[in-house]
Amino acid sequence: MNVLRAQPIRLGLAALITASFVVGVGAQEPQQPMTPTFKTTVDVVSVTAVVRDGKGRVVRNLTREDFQVYEKGQPRKIVDFKASDQGPISLAVLFDVSGSMRGSPNMVAGKKAVDHILSWVEPKADEFALFTFDKDLRQETPFTNDPATIHTALEKMTAIGVTSLYDAIADTAKQLGSRPSPRRAVVVITDGIDNASQLTPAQVSGMASAIDVPVYVIAVVSPLDHPGGNYAVPGANTSQVSTSLGNLANWTGGELLIVSEPAGASLAARELITELRHQYLLAFESSKLPGWYAVDVKTRHRDFTVRARSGYFASNRPYS
Known about the structure:
single chain, alpha/beta, seven-stranded mixed sheet, four-stranded antiparallel sheet, 6 helices
């Protein structure tokens, strides 16, 4: 099935998460935004983590003793731990309706990807909302338990305008950060083009990771442009998409998937929901000094890889 995952590389930065799906080279550490407009004030830092084995399968049934947490390279004690396959999911679907999607097969493919995602949710328990963006972000539907509401809104969408992809991700993550469920994610459907954002991928990833909102990106491309696909033309390359969006997703604890066929979209949707259902929740005490702190979550098993957010903002208020 034509789903392209990012291959792991070593970035040599303690601030970055050891992840199984980092894409591209020349990545930079997530940046503290110039004005952290939606940082979290915490005494205890909670981190959701997904663990996969050497074959890419989600790992379950790990214990607190299997994990190690490092803050700026220093080990931190895990003060709380939960491993549960139960609990509702909050999804914010962010759909690209910019001009580059207009009249493109990618628009149809993107809608199909959302259909696949909704087929795996539990309507009575999970909640989801639909956002669209070109230069501006719009909430097409409020958070709901009714998939039909999303389907209706999808059919009415049209594409026009320039693309502020990274700005839209930041604003959507901010809105999702207030949802009650810890099993939450922004799911971006896009062709990966950005030509109008004010924020950089590193700034956006710093914002989203600070509130523990993973960003999953489903990049829809033509089969001719899908490297490694059955119909890819010689020289097919999505490096610009995979480098920027892949690093952004990885830093937040999410993932980039590049799809060009319905089967690939279906697989991506199923694995995304599976990850959110089988997360580990860890907590450790926040640093007493304000600022940005890089976090690295690992397991004691060499063949296992962990995806989790890359850091957090410590409180600006004094501690007693």
